[in-house]
Amino acid sequence: MSAAVVEPTPATDAVLEVNDLSVSFPTDDGVVQAVRGVSYSLRPGEVLGIVGESGSGKSVTSLAIMGLLPPTARVSGSVRLGGQELVGAPYEAMAKLRGRKMAMVFQDPISSLNPVYSIGWQLAEAVRAHQDVTKKQALDRAIDLLNTVGIPNAKERASNYPHEFSGGMRQRVVIAMAIANDPEVLIADEPTTALDVTVQAQILETLDIAREATQAAMVLITHDLGVVAGVADRVLVMYAGKPVETGAVDDIYYRSRMPYTLGLLGSIPRLDDRDGGELHPIPGSPPSLLNLAPGCPFSPRCTYRIPVCDEQEPALLEVESSGHRAACHVADQLAHADGDIPLSAQVTSTTPRTRRPRKQA
Amino acid sequence: MTAPIQTSAQPVEATEPVLQVRNLVKHFPVRSTGVVRRTVGQIHAVCDVSFDVFRGETLGIVGESGCGKSTTGRAILSLQPATSGQVLFDGKDVTKLKGHDLRLVRRDMQLVFQDPYASLNPRMTINDIVGEPLVIHGLGGTKERRAEKVQELLRIVGLNPEHGNRYAHEFSGGQRQRIGIARALALEPRVLVLDEPVSALDVSIQAGVVNLLEALQERLGLSYIFIAHDLSVVRHIADRVAVMYLGRIVEIARKDALFERPAHPYTRALLSAIPIPDPRKERERRRIVLNGDVPSPAMPPSGCRFRTRCQVFRDELTDDQRKLCIDLVPALEDRGQGHPVACHYADVEKVV
To answer: Which 8-state DSSP code applies to residue B296?
Structure first.
């Protein structure tokens, strides 16, 4: 994991630049604003963690970048990959880029693999789609890739079919496929969510190896704040289709300035928590993205709410250190003096964190 | 009553156990394809599992998919008949009970399921769902009394009783799980088996359900068997924790002992694999990455079932020492770590 302090990004050396990306889906009930203006830039070799709950728009953002949304989706804004604009790019141009310059690892490996072709064949196909090589060379490359991601007996296993692999092994195959053409950007969408923790550890290690082999920058999408803490250099927290806080990983975990981030960190039980104090759930549930009310979308659930929150949606503005931005009207009042204790262990709402009394017999 | 055996680590309060599980075994037959479906093998889902549950305590059962934790929960309630072994509740062996007697015991032991979407009938109102156990067991008195009781139950789990005539799809995931809990509480049970009750919920919602379960336990003196794969949640809610691997309990201990001084190599690997939402700590932690995958429960390895993936077996033992792991199933007993561990070479190492 690289250094946590991140300098502001000069726009020029970014491999991926996303600017004011918005996605909406027309439905019978009205227009669903799934993504409402996401901007970030990704430098070579960097890992950006995107965190949010179900429905926060984190997956849709990535699908929009890859150009994988259904034709009914309305995408606006700009996505530039190495200077090339992707929003509105024709299908053929996108097909040349996908898998070559940017690749994606999905949550569910069994549905990303074709059940009727062998693993080796599918990997070789990924190689041949972008490189002018013979079938034999492609298969050799496929076996190399399987070795890289840690599949034992790669040569024999290449002739196996997806159902003959375990969940963790399948995810390794998908990662091998994603790095087959040395992409510059790797987008991993909840790559470990369907897996057990010991397998998750294996996959995170494999992703590390994959990044080393390709020097790719990675966008890691997850709801698990623990995974992000260990892997990411920078973090983007999403809520109701918008980034609400972004910054270096330490800024987010130790100096968060957004009540939603604070709430998330306060609501998770921790493996290293000895006292077992009461958890602080965030009251209420996320808003419907259909006809959003004006104001901050988090305000109905927020303990720090002031009147202006219901009238005006806060912009994502710089706070304190460079590169750390938060979208909150009261961000300045949330500065906690003590930056050493992670906020999840501090009082994170107006109610005190009480110790659970011991049970009576 | 059976005398307390060694497999139970010291309970919170030294009282009489509510539930005693002794040498529980559950095998599922593997059948051949074809017209005559002969049994060609056995899936060893649960193997020789013993533990006690005391009044007012939470026993966490943790492990990865396929380790037999859910099957254990279901076998305790006799939802799936145990192959052998005993489940003693009030001195009665639940596995031997049938019909009316079994139903009487089930009043005292209820189950909360993982998936709050699949476990509620979409065509019944919430009032009907929560009141159904009362109807089935002929409790709750008149219709009016029963309706009052249902209202009370909804209030207890933090739902608005006025919403009782709505249907399940009108509620969010967290609310649905509360409905499932209200239904389980309807018969005033003493033991609740919670099978991954918060796994399907978003983190901000999960905390509310965990708090509710803790509050209910205090108020009603319930005993919980809390089955989960998320050890962070278990550390928060449980008093004692049993770790299962491939159908066997490999370690059982008071929560603090297990998390601070894990003695079994599998427990250590499991704990080290769980990420902590604290970047500085995460950067310093050493992760024990296990080899390969869980072996098939149809053909578990001889001796210690964990040896095929064990980091100690792989890196630290000599061939002579390994022989013991291959030949002999390690018993679950205290080997000087202060709590029972099923490992021939148990050792304590800090990983959290």
So the answer is: P
